[in-house]
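Sequence in, structure out. Go.
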Amino acid sequence: MLLKAIECGHRRTYQSSIAFYYLLFAISSSSNAQTAPIETAPLEEIVVSASRNLLDQALSDSTTIYRLYPRQAIGARHSIADMLIQAPGVSYNGQGGLFQSYSLRGFSRWRIRTEVNGVPLLIDRPAGSSASFIPSSLVDQITISQGPGSTLYGSDAMGGAVSLSTVKQGTPSYRLQWQDNDGQLMLSGSGSINSAISGGLALRKANNATDANDNPLNSGFEQVALSLHGQTQWQNLTLSASWLPVRGRDIGKSNANFPDTAAAHYPHDDHSIATVELRRDKRWLARLYHHRQDWASITETSEGQGNRTDFDADTIGALLYHQTPFSIGEGRAGIEWLGRRNVKINTVTLAPAETSDLFESGFSGSQDGIGLFIDHVWTHQDIALELGARYDHVAQEGLGASIDDGAWSTTLALSWQPDSPWHLSGKIGTGFRFPTLTERFSKAATPRGILLGNPSLTSEQNESLELRADYHSNGYQLSAATYYNWLDNYIERVILEPGIRTYINTEQASLWGYEVMLQWQLPAGLSHRLQYQYQRGTSNNDEWLSDLNPPSWRYGVQWLSPEFEFQTELVYRPSRDLAGPGEQPLDSATWLDSQLSFNWLKHAKLTFFINNLFNEAYRGSADEQAPFQPGRTFGLGIEWTPS
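Output:
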């Protein structure tokens, strides 16, 4: 009743007038910025990191790392992808809605390792693994490691890694947020229960949104999630544990076929992620983890046909590593075991009258992998040299077949930190990815048609080169990186015949690009950020690869004062005529997001926001079934911090 009452009170005509006055206020406020006598405020949306922590799985300072803070995001971000695209080299991939996936420097699906509190997410959706089932209000920090990470993470990190950390101990905080386009209502709270236990709870619900042309989007959902974290110390030992159960219901799978020809949704999407960790200072770490997932998807066509896929799986694993014993430099060596149990995918397709089965397909599989790795950094004056190596072995079973595979990965990096504002680095390395159980063995019905596995697939291989330069001086920060990847046995999804797809290896491919980000701070609490990215990738037949990042410009402004905070981000994406298999050309698009927060009372903050202020009709990715993004969205929120 509350959602309906709020929806009835705000229509799109009223929304447009609010947007106009809101933008007018923002412009007038910015023009008076120089009169505010406050200290310079840091731009906190994106932090470029060049530090290394032996126990938190960051490589040397040659690795390009971006850190994002979801609480800094503008507006109500549905998915994790909505926040990741703020970083250079990251873009939307696949279709839209809560399950929106992402691409890191042109690598997507299972080529990116996504983990939560150190637990890898291995999800057998054709779009690959995604952490979008986790509400952003329960995420404290997101770390993006660009470039091949196989030396540290093994398979599934050929294109990098996305690591999420959930909320831990902190000041109690309660948030209520609503937006008008889809009536999304979000309620969350987090804080410390006592000195050892902390956590958070989030509930959110949304109806279907509309795009800029008022066409419906299949993007509604219901979700509840709990995050618990405990930690205790004894002498030099630290014992910690976390648990993240998430329950999702009636989640729409947004795509361009809705509602005319097909509709897809997930009646349930349940997850449980648990981890226990013991560490001693920076000397060694031991971790055990478990991820239980249970979800189902239903696809229905306008002719009355439909299919249902049920998925169950357990991911279990252990990680142990110790600092290296060399007297010069620092590093670590370790072993990781990753297992998958009870992986079951069952698909049933029903006749139009739903009285008999057209076919039923089932798949049951398992996987065990073990990796041995070492990396070490030697430092002499202002030069650092890193060497790393890893060997992985995997055994997979499915459909009565067994496959064993193995791969090496290596890293060589050199960085130079002269007595100046500059920091220069270069890195060469190799990466790999074992085909997943889905790619090798499954047979499933999807909104695109029947998807068949290919047991003859071989592992992908990658050789990469990255050069990077960073400059820090007097409130200015410039970061520029360029990279080149030589790919062998690249796995592509292709059409066998209408309605049937499968996976094949492409002999060779290349992928290269560059990204630049400039951040600067001015007096009166003003911070600016300007970034650009470009990428190109082709196969050995000179055919365009799928999932590449489109070129884009981003300009963000943040203004802080004791009374309020203003943020805005303008994005321009030029048109792109070339497209890979299963993709379409992209038209140019420009969109603007803005947010204004007031310190309303002593312990309360009131926030107004607008997403897609220009009401631009644009697709998030080049996927042939990608829908338009939601149209102009107005929202408000309140946050209460009792202490």
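Check: The longest strand covers residues 357-380. Confidence is low (pLDDT under 50) at residues 1-45, 49-53.
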